[in-house]
Structure formats: C-alpha cells, structure tokens
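Exercise 7b. Backbone tokens:
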C-alpha cells in the first residue's frame, strides 16, 4: 500500500508543476497594471515607471518565473502588493473559511445524495424512485448564486432562523459556526446532491443484479443487511470517483458562495486580488487551490486501493 501511495504521489508532482506554470503565465498575460492601480489616476509616467521597477514588474518573464520558483522552494509565496502582507499569511488566515465551507458541503452532498440514490435503487421504477430522481434533477439545475439569495431571503430575512452572512470560527463558538455555515454549505451542496444521487442509483442497480446479492437474499438475509453490507460497499467505487471530482467543483463554487454570503475565504480573496491586479495573491491562491484538488484526488486513489485491493495490484 505504501508503494502504491508513493507512486501516486510522484505522479502528482508533474501536475502541480504544470499548474504552477500556468498560474504564473495566466497572470502575466492578464490585462491591467497593478502599478497604475496602486498609484492612482493622477500618477505621472515617471512615477509609474519607478513603481513598476520597485515591484519587479519590468523584469523579463523568465527572470520573474525562476524567481517565483526559487521563493516557492523555500515556502515563500511572495508579498501581496496591495494588502502589505505575505501571501501565505493572507491565505492561511482565510483558508479555514473555505475549507469549512467546502468539506461541509461535500459531507451534505454525500450523505443526502447517496441516501437518495440508495432509496431510488431499492425502489426502482416506483414513486419513491421518481421522487428522489426528480428532487436530484431540480437541485442539479438551480444556479448556486440564485439559490443562495433565495435561501437568505427565506431562512434569514423572513424566518430569521439563520444569519444572512459572515463567519464564526469553530474554536470560538461551534454553534455559531454551524449557524453561519448552514446556508452557504447547503447552497453549495445542492447541485452535487443530484450528481451523487444519480451515480449511486446507477451503481446500486448494477450491484443489486449480481449473483451474490441474489444468493444473500435467497438465504433469508434481512434486506437492510443485503443493501448496506453487500451492495453498497461494492457500489462505492463510482461514488468515490464522483467525490473526488466534486471536491474540485465545490472549491470553484465556493468563490461564488463566499461572495453571496460575505464569507472571508480564499475565494473572496482571489476575486478581490483579480479586481485590484494583485498578482502574487492570484498566483498563490490558484496554486493553493490546485494543490488541494490534487491532494484530494490522491486521497481518492488511496481510498480506491483500500476498497478494492485489485487496483493497487494492477488487476482491475
């Protein structure tokens, strides 16, 4: 297992290298001038030139790229041009918000989506199946930003059950954290609930037709044991695949949700950096997001190998 994990980790390194290069290159070709943003509309050409030189913006592309990689090798993501703060410190300060939102949304999507999928598979062709899949389709079709505004209006404005936005750290007030995260996480999770439900239903239907499931039923084994112990574990591989993909989708969707609910997360930080042309923050934020996505997919690969040993032995 350790050998398999090491091989998967080594294979992920070129991906991170390519992503880091693309992150730097994209920022290089983005239109706009951070020096003009900082100096203001009244700055003269000479003042702008001095500011660009002080920020290192006049250096050739390769010189800036190798300088950035050299700093990355020491764990330095650079300095935010406008925040007057280290990029790493700015990201670490906001990372708990984004991770709380993303993982809570993933947990909601997994629990609700797989539950609906199992129900639909066990009751295939019946009213429960149609209701579960209809609910999943509706959730999959609604835009996140629109749904977030609707939930805020209903549960925060009209019913006053939950706050309209903001973030409370878990270590300060767990209940306040749960209240502040409920609406954003539910909004972010809804589209992925439909995906999990459909994938779980398809995988469960295939497994329920297998001979060993029919044998377990013929022996008089209770239905919940047949479904939970024998069928569901063997249907988990496709669901785990979707979980890895959904993590990237949820990280991207967190950018929108953080804007809707005024959450001080990494997504909101990146959006603000794009608007103000704060290149080091954009580069660091993109690299961090890509790294999290790669690590999650690595964890998914390892979970594959645990669920089905044939994968790590190359026999699948």
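Sequence design result:
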């Amino acid at each position: 297992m350790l050998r398999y994990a090491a091989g998967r980790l080594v294979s992920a390194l070129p991906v991170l290298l390519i992503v880091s290069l693309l992150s730097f290159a994209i920022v290089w070709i983005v239109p706009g001038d951070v020096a003009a943003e900082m100096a203001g509309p009244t700055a003269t050409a000479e003042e702008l030139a001095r500011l660009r030189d002080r920020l290192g913006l006049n250096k050739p592309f390769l010189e800036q790229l190798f300088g950035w990689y050299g700093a990355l090798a020491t764990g330095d993501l650079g300095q935010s041009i406008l925040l007057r703060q280290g990029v790493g410190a700015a990201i670490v300060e906001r990372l708990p918000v984004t991770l709380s939102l993303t993982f809570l949304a993933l947990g909601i999507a997994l629990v609700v989506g797989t539950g609906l999928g199992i129900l639909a598979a066990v009751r295939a062709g019946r009213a429960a199946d149609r209701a579960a899949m209809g609910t999943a389709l509706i959730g999959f079709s609604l835009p996140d930003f629109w749904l977030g505004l609707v939930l805020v209006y209903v549960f925060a404005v009209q019913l006053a059950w939950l706050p309209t936005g903001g973030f409370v750290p878990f270590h300060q007030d767990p209940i306040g954290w749960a209240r502040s995260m409920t609406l954003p996480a539910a909004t972010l999770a809804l589209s992925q609930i439909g995906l999990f439900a459909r994938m779980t239903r398809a995988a469960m239907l295939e497994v329920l037709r297998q001979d060993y499931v029919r044998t377990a039923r013929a022996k008089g084994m209770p239905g919940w044991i047949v479904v939970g112990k024998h069928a569901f574990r063997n249907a988990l591989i496709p669901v785990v695949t979707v979980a890895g993909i959904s993590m990237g989708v949820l990280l991207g969707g967190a950018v929108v949700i953080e804007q809707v609910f005024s959450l001080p997360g990494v997504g909101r930080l990146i959006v603000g950096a794009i608007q103000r042309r704060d290149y080091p923050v954009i580069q660091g934020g993109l690299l961090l997001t890509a790294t999290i996505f790669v690590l999650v997919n690595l964890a998914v690969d390892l979970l594959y190998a645990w669920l089905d040993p044939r994968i790590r032995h190359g026999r699948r």
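Instructor comment: The mean pLDDT is 79. The chain has 14 helices and no strands.
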